[in-house]
TrEMBL record:
<dbReference type="GO" id="GO:0046872">
    <property type="term" value="F:metal ion binding"/>
</dbReference>
<dbReference type="GO" id="GO:0019825">
    <property type="term" value="F:oxygen binding"/>
</dbReference>
<dbReference type="InterPro" id="IPR001486">
    <property type="entry name" value="Hemoglobin_trunc"/>
</dbReference>
<dbReference type="InterPro" id="IPR044203">
    <property type="entry name" value="GlbO/GLB3-like"/>
</dbReference>
<comment type="similarity">
    <text>Belongs to the truncated hemoglobin family. Group II subfamily.</text>
</comment>
<dbReference type="InterPro" id="IPR012292">
    <property type="entry name" value="Globin/Proto"/>
</dbReference>
<dbReference type="InterPro" id="IPR009050">
    <property type="entry name" value="Globin-like_sf"/>
</dbReference>
<protein>
    <submittedName>
        <fullName>Hemoglobin</fullName>
    </submittedName>
</protein>
<dbReference type="GO" id="GO:0020037">
    <property type="term" value="F:heme binding"/>
</dbReference>
<keyword id="KW-0349">Heme</keyword>
<dbReference type="Pfam" id="PF01152">
    <property type="entry name" value="Bac_globin"/>
</dbReference>
<dbReference type="GO" id="GO:0005344">
    <property type="term" value="F:oxygen carrier activity"/>
</dbReference>
<keyword id="KW-0479">Metal-binding</keyword>
<keyword id="KW-0408">Iron</keyword>
<keyword id="KW-0813">Transport</keyword>
Amino acid sequence: QKPLTIYERIGGEHAITRIVEAFYPRVQKNPLLAPLFPEDIQPVMEKQKRFLTQFFGGPPLYSQQHGHPRLRARHLPFPITPSRAEAWLHCMKEALDDAEIQGEVRQEIWSRLCFTASHMVNTPEENQ
Ligand code: HEM
């Protein structure tokens, strides 16, 4: 028997939607993050739902529509400082709380997101 994926353990599409819908309103209120994002956040939310679905072991929705994620390359146009990565993770922590993601699967999600967020840093603090 295959072990369940993170996607299956959190409850699939419904959980992804809850996380993403809790996350972006927080991003848009965060003074370090808001200036990087477009006013119309809906398309970004749709991409993030597809990405997190596959990142957590669900169907490869992001790659089917957008090709290889190349996340670091796709973030290069935006000056991502260590403090912006921290702010992103802070918004995500609150979103995971809102979506009631708890227990062992939460720890797994958290360590993967921390790793990926630090990988996105492309600008030293003083150059922001
Ligand atoms: C896109 C910021 C970390 C996943 C974006 C965009 C910005 C951004 C400004 C572009 C929005 C637009 O379309 O105009 C940041 C910042 C981060 C961060 C400041 C702090 C570290 C992450 C992490 C992930 C992620 C950790 C995944 C776990 C994505 C995805 C997109 C995206 C999937 C859409 C890419 C596409 O255009 O297809 N992000 N991001 N980001 N981000 Fe991040």
